[in-house]
UniProtKB/TrEMBL annotation, chain B:
<dbReference type="Pfam" id="PF00420">
    <property type="entry name" value="Oxidored_q2"/>
</dbReference>
<feature type="transmembrane region" description="Helical">
    <location>
        <begin position="60"/>
        <end position="84"/>
    </location>
</feature>
<keyword id="KW-1003">Cell membrane</keyword>
<feature type="transmembrane region" description="Helical">
    <location>
        <begin position="6"/>
        <end position="24"/>
    </location>
</feature>
<dbReference type="GO" id="GO:0030964">
    <property type="term" value="C:NADH dehydrogenase complex"/>
</dbReference>
<dbReference type="InterPro" id="IPR039428">
    <property type="entry name" value="NUOK/Mnh_C1-like"/>
</dbReference>
<keyword id="KW-0874">Quinone</keyword>
<keyword id="KW-0830">Ubiquinone</keyword>
<comment type="similarity">
    <text>Belongs to the complex I subunit 4L family.</text>
</comment>
<keyword id="KW-0812">Transmembrane</keyword>
<keyword id="KW-0520">NAD</keyword>
<dbReference type="InterPro" id="IPR001133">
    <property type="entry name" value="NADH_UbQ_OxRdtase_chain4L/K"/>
</dbReference>
<keyword id="KW-1133">Transmembrane helix</keyword>
<dbReference type="GO" id="GO:0005886">
    <property type="term" value="C:plasma membrane"/>
</dbReference>
<keyword id="KW-0560">Oxidoreductase</keyword>
<dbReference type="GO" id="GO:0050136">
    <property type="term" value="F:NADH dehydrogenase (quinone) (non-electrogenic) activity"/>
</dbReference>
<comment type="subunit">
    <text>NDH-1 is composed of 14 different subunits. Subunits NuoA, H, J, K, L, M, N constitute the membrane sector of the complex.</text>
</comment>
Length: 176, 100
């Protein structure tokens, strides 16, 4: 009995937030103004954070909200407002792109979902919340892995961020 | 208990919507936003497979993807600002300097 309630709750969580993500992604595609697209992407990221949490990735759910919808999307909205981007106008190129683009995207979706659904029985079921190791939390597991085995890649990312900061400053600087 | 394949199909839906937006949109900022959508869809598959195999490697991979995406967004938006400064437009059809 308890199992059944668990299953229904998990399925409801998945359907609500998965559906919200799909609707927001459709809204991203259909809106003409870039600020509307950016704000719908924030909705997609928030609902994906809930799904990450339901798959037992608590650290990444928090990082998704803080890094993606907190930092990256604020940067996007900032640039859209800075450049005063208006509604995009339809051009000849965009008609050709939509004639070729929608069937291409639909074909890729059909291929991917055919593979996933036909091989889906070989994959298992997901359990709500963390199922990795009940004794320690997800965050301490990730951090112990990140600071022992993966210390070098972790330090290299700090150099990558430094290079990105320098690149952004040099590129956005006013030319003299 | 939701089958892992449902999560993968959801990621496929988000990825194809990202591809469609990437191809159809003409505004360079919106194209950049759809790249972020595709990155998020792939992150969902990584986390679903990490859950399936009870391994942390997929989550570590998503962590590094997030770091790279943040760096990429900073540099890309700086390029967009530089582009707007020199061409006074955000429409990719009018940015065709390399076209033969």
């Amino acid at each position: 009995m308890n199992e059944l309630v668990d299953t229904i709750m998990h399925l409801a969580l998945f359907l609500i937030f998965g559906g919200l993500a799909v609707l927001a992604a459709l809204n991203l595609l259909l809106q003409r103004h870039p600020i509307n697209s950016a704000l719908s992407l924030v909705v997609v990221m928030m609902s994906l954070a809930v799904l990450y949490w339901s798959l037992g990735a608590e650290f990444l759910a928090a990082a998704q909200i803080i890094v993606y919808s907190g930092a990256v999307m604020v940067l996007f909205v900032f640039v859209i407002m800075l450049l005063n981007a208006g509604e995009e106008e339809r051009t000849k190129g965009s008609k050709i792109a939509s004639i070729a683009g929608f069937p291409g995207a639909a074909a890729i979706f059909c291929l991917l979902s055919f593979v996933f659904l036909s091989e889906g029985h070989k994959l298992g079921l997901s359990h709500l919340g963390g199922s990795l190791d009940e004794a320690t939390s997800n965050i301490s597991q990730i951090s112990s892995l990140l600071f022992t085995d993966l210390l070098l890649p972790f330090e290299v990312t700090s150099i990558l961020i430094l290079v990105a900061i320098l690149g952004a400053v040099v590129l956005a600087k006013k030319e003299r | 208990m939701v089958p892992i394949s449902y999560y993968l199909v959801l990621a496929a839906i988000l990825f194809s919507l990202g591809i469609a937006a990437y191809l159809v949109k003409r505004n360079v900022i919106t194209i950049f936003i759809s790249i972020e959508l595709m990155l998020n869809a792939v992150n969902l598959t990584f986390i679903a497979f990490a859950h399936q195999w009870n391994k942390l490697n997929g989550q570590i991979f998503v962590f590094f993807v997030m770091v790279v995406a943040a760096a990429e967004a900073a540099v890309g938006l700086a390029i967009i600002i530089a582009l707007f400064r020199s061409r006074q437009t955000l429409n990719v059809d009018q940015v065709n300097l390399l076209k033969g």
